[in-house]
Amino acid sequence: MGMAPSLLRAVVASILALSAFLGAAAASAEPLVVRIGFASVGVDNRQFAGGSSVAIAHAEGYLEKAFQDTPEVRFEWYFFKGAGPAVNEAIANGQLDFAVQGDLPSVIGRASGLKTKILMASGAHAPTYLAVPEGSSLSSVKELKGRKVAIFRGTNNHLAVVKVLAANGLSERDIQVLNMDNATTNSALASKDVDGAFGNWPLIALHLANRAKIIYATKGDDPAFERHSTVLVTEAFEGAHPDIVQKIITQFVRAARWSSDNANFDAAVAIWARSGTPEAVFRYDFAGTELRYRNSPIVDPFLVEQYRFQARQAKEFGLVRRDVDVRGWFEPKYVDQAITTLGLEGYWTR
């Protein structure tokens, strides 16, 4: 005896509903791999970074702990020897969801059409240093005219250097620029194959080891010479997973709060030293600066204006070919919500 048509329809409908439910449940449980890139890498390719709150969050497993009850979400961290330019390439190839990188490479990425949003500061307000070989008679930026100078082009040091040169009556045309990464620069300074080099932590390490001499730092000079780094996310990832973005940024802000506390500085430099950069280097770099200033996550009007200024100068100095509009690029709502959630209103100056 056959099944009544009405009953058959009900059974079929139930089966379809159950299939849809199971399919949705399976889809919701599909693993999500969040790929985060740093525009730096540790000494001897160690998979750690230093000097920023997000570096603390990575080394101490902030995200992994926050998502431990969400096993379908996991994190992959990538560190790029090629710095900002390599990060931009990875974003262009769809290989990263988040990145921590400097102002100039971010501007260059936007100029080339990368669809990203800047969410928070991490590693902002950082200085740049000029070092010369040990025994050199050079003592000022102005004396670099006609000299061989190493610069890691395309990084956030680059635009700072261009501005420092301009403030001293020079341009890149007035010096012999040699494009070198950090390792090559270190070797060139040690062998005296260059007359000077601009950079950051590796130069401090050489200076402290008496293998080079720092003769100038932007620290204490015009704030326009500062280097800035931020956390950015691809528009595609933010659009698909705003809740995940919020949870990640909240953890990064927690790390920023911890890193901004003077009582935690010794512990912070010990964590950053996992990158292979000696603790003494970070102590030198942060000496005389307010931790709340260096480690603030806030995208404030000063930071936005600095990126607007960087974008304009990048065009003026020929580092990008087109105007870069920063309107709509910054999305501070995630940091603002994190500050509210963590009860940190007023902790950092806006």
Automatic annotation (TrEMBL):
<protein>
    <submittedName>
        <fullName>Aryl sulfate ester ABC transporter</fullName>
    </submittedName>
</protein>
<dbReference type="Pfam" id="PF09084">
    <property type="entry name" value="NMT1"/>
</dbReference>
<keyword id="KW-0732">Signal</keyword>
<feature type="domain" description="SsuA/THI5-like">
    <location>
        <begin position="87"/>
        <end position="258"/>
    </location>
</feature>
<feature type="signal peptide">
    <location>
        <begin position="1"/>
        <end position="29"/>
    </location>
</feature>
<dbReference type="InterPro" id="IPR015168">
    <property type="entry name" value="SsuA/THI5"/>
</dbReference>
